[in-house]
From TrEMBL:
Task of the protein: Has endoglucanase activity on substrates containing beta-1,4 glycosidic bonds, like in carboxymethylcellulose (CMC), hydroxyethylcellulose (HEC) and beta-glucan. Involved in the degradation of complex natural cellulosic substrates.
Catalytic activity: Endohydrolysis of (1->4)-beta-D-glucosidic linkages in cellulose, lichenin and cereal beta-D-glucans
UniProt cross-references to InterPro entries, sorted A to Z: CBD (IPR000254), CBD_sf (IPR035971), GH (IPR017853), Glyco_hydro_5 (IPR001547)
This protein's name: cellulase
Keywords assigned: Glycosidase, Hydrolase, Signal
CBM1 domain segment(s): 23-59
Pfam families, sorted: CBM_1, Cellulase
Length: 394
């Protein structure tokens, strides 16, 4: 294992070196964003598309039909390995896993399956489950799940495809986090209609209420919004979910300012008053370790930056009697980041009375293998470097 990892590590350094002299980025690779120094143009058939100030990505040129080899149909073999992957007490986090990206990819809404977006691969999820990983956060786009308006009936085709990975995960004893990956926005505008948002979550909860291993994540990374609105949207989601009869599942609430752990104690203090009648509310925070905390650079500030950025949140959880989960984090494949990541995970583990888990961003079939944060087996750069390191935490 170690030997394989080393050889693959050398290979990926070679790929990285090759990439740096390449003029053009491959499909779905990063091609721009604050402090990005790599290629800013894409290979033929792909267009560098602005997604946010932190991230531009090579997406299929609109006129180009791209064939994809990924498939969502290979759910055939259920292993029973996962039934042993239940929570442990003392010295471990209850949940340890990865984000399973790709259903949220692309900017065309609703867009086309296999062109703009695809779904998580149950074969590689099964690999993680066999290693003991027990939580998978699966982003989706609200504009695809509820087409035309926030409170539209759920789209059956998208929901059915999305449910394949959800069901695979939960049937194998792990937890599936339904992540509305929308930054508090729908079709580019901040969601202000809390009633419609409540209906959306009521519809989602109705679809999944019989699955006790499903977790509802109200929205990914609210930012640049009125804090009262962030509170109200979270409360509306809670009310919609519980009102639909989903009373046994956990709910993850995210906060403003990209739900950053490092700013939680100053930005999101008001969220302590969210009210879940079932008392199954968990605060989901994200933390990256590069200079601006955006997760766009493989360089970490220092080997201790992980602990430094989350300890204020730990104190907040403790003093308010709340529970938290780190729903996104990553570090580049280098020794400074490795120490920063393990230092942070050791801190969470030592405080597992308030921290319930950690989830790496991200796995997913369409990440190019040379994306530094890609933990998609078998050749994602983070998988090659970090999988064995992370297995110590499951
Ligand atoms: C999305 O916004 C655009 C304008 O920005 C508008 O033309 C379109 O109708 C909107 N679509 C939906 C589904 O709201
Ligand atoms: C769902 O997946 C099938 C392939 O399994 C694909 O043909 C179809 O277009 C997908 N639909 C959506 C909306 O994702
Ligand atoms: C808030 O959290 C940050 C990041 O962990 C920490 O540096 C800071 O000391 C905390 N501030 C307070 C007032 O707890």
């Amino acid at each position: 294992m170690k030997r394989t990892a080393t050889i693959a590590g050398i290979a990926s350094i070679a790929i990285l070196a090759a990439t740096s002299v390449q003029a053009q980025q491959s499909g779905y690779g990063q091609c721009g964003g604050e402090s990005w120094t790599g290629a800013t143009t894409c290979v033929s058939g792909w267009t560098c598309t602005f997604l946010s100030e932190y991230y531009s990505q090579c997406l299929p040129s609109s006129s180009t039909l791209t064939t994809t080899t990924s498939s969502t149909t290979s759910s055939a073999t259920s292993t029973s390995a996962a039934s042993t992957a239940t929570s442990t007490s003392g010295g471990k986090l209850q949940w340890f896993g990865v984000d399973e990206s790709c259903a949220e990819f692309g900017t065309a809404m609703p867009g086309t399956w296999g062109v703009d977006f695809t779904f998580a691969d149950t074969t590689t999820i099964g690999e993680f489950i066999s290693q003991g990983f027990n939580i998978f956060r699966i982003p989706f786009a609200m504009e695809r799940m509820a087409q035309g308006s926030v409170d539209a009936a759920l789209d059956e085709a998208y929901l059915t495809n999305y449910s394949v990975a959800v069901n695979y995960i939960t049937e194998n004893g792990a937890y599936a986090v339904l992540d509305a990956h929308n930054y508090g926005r729908y079709n580019g505008s901040i969601i202000t209609d809390t009633t419609a948002f409540q209906t959306f979550w009521s519809n989602m909860a109705t679809a999944f209420k019989d699955n006790s291993n499903v977790i509802f994540d109200t929205n990914n990374e609210y930012h640049d919004m009125d804090e009262t609105l962030v509170f109200d949207l979270n409360q509306a989601a809670i009310d919609g979910i519980r009102g639909a009869g989903a009373t046994t599942q956990y709910i993850f609430a995210e906060g403003n300012s990209w739900t950053g752990a490092w700013t939680w104690n100053t930005t999101n203090d008001a969220l302590k008053d969210l009210d879940d009648p079932e008392d199954l509310l968990i605060y989901e925070m994200h933390q990256y370790l590069d200079s601006d905390g955006s997760g766009t650079s493989a360089t970490c500030v220092s080997s201790t930056i992980g602990v430094e950025r989350v300890e204020g949140a730990t104190a907040w959880l403790k003093s308010n009697g709340k529970l938290g989960i780190l729903g996104e984090y990553a570090g580049g494949p280098n020794s400074v980041c490795e120490d920063a990541v393990t230092g942070m995970l050791d801190h969470l583990t030592a405080n597992n009375d308030v921290w319930l888990g950690a989830v790496w961003w991200a796995a997913g079939p369409w990440w190019p293998a040379d994306t530094w944060a890609s933990i998609e087996p078998p050749s994602g750069q983070a998988y090659v470097y970090y999988d064995e390191i992370l297995q110590a935490y499951v």
